[in-house]
Amino acid sequence: MSQEKISSDKTLEAMRNFSEQYAKRTETFFCSDLSVTAVVIEGLAKNKEELGAPLCPCRHYEDKEAEVKATFWNCPCVPMRERRECHCMLFVTDDNPFVGQEQKISLEYIKEVGESIKKV
């Protein structure tokens, strides 16, 4: 197994743990479609590895490095911290029609969804 793969799994696991803990702490839940959750967590891990911070993967940025330094869209982003509004639907409040019942997601499921997307 390559060092890059080990690092990627480590970062993915860190982002998974963060997401579960933050959902519990904020009394939010993952999206009812857990594949959305998996894709967002994978995007956060990718940005953490490439940029050094978990920049929101659901937005377009002209300059990702500048956005990381500004910290506004680093997860949890300012809208989530201030108003519990998550653009990515990673952290969903109970009044949202897309709210699920889960605050946990397995690393295996995240990887499975990631692999299925790569095949498309």
In helices, the fraction of residues equals 55-70%
Global geometry: globular
**How would you state the average pLDDT, rounded?**
93
Q: Tell me how many strands there are.
A: 0
Beta-strand fraction estimate = under 5%
Q: Please give the count of helices.
A: 5
Major pleated sheet: none
Q: In angstroms, what separates the terminal alpha carbons?
A: 25 Å
What Rg do the Cα atoms give?
Answer: 14 Å
Low-confidence residue ranges = none
- H/E topology pattern: HHHHH
Going by helix content, strand content and strand pairing, the class is mainly alpha
Quick gist of this model?
57% of the residues lie in helices and 0% in strands.
What does this structure look like?
The chain is mainly alpha-helical and 120 residues long. Helices cover 57% and strands 0% of the residues. The chain contains 5 helices and no strands. It has helices at residues 3-26, 34-51, 64-70, 78-83, 107-119. α1 (3-26) packs across α2 (34-51) and α2 crosses α5. The longest helix has 24 residues, at 3-26. The radius of gyration is 14 Å and the shape is globular. The mean pLDDT is 93.
Write the layout of secondary structure elements.
Layout: H1 3-26, H2 34-51, H3 64-70, H4 78-83, H5 107-119
Helix pairs in contact: 1-2, 2-5
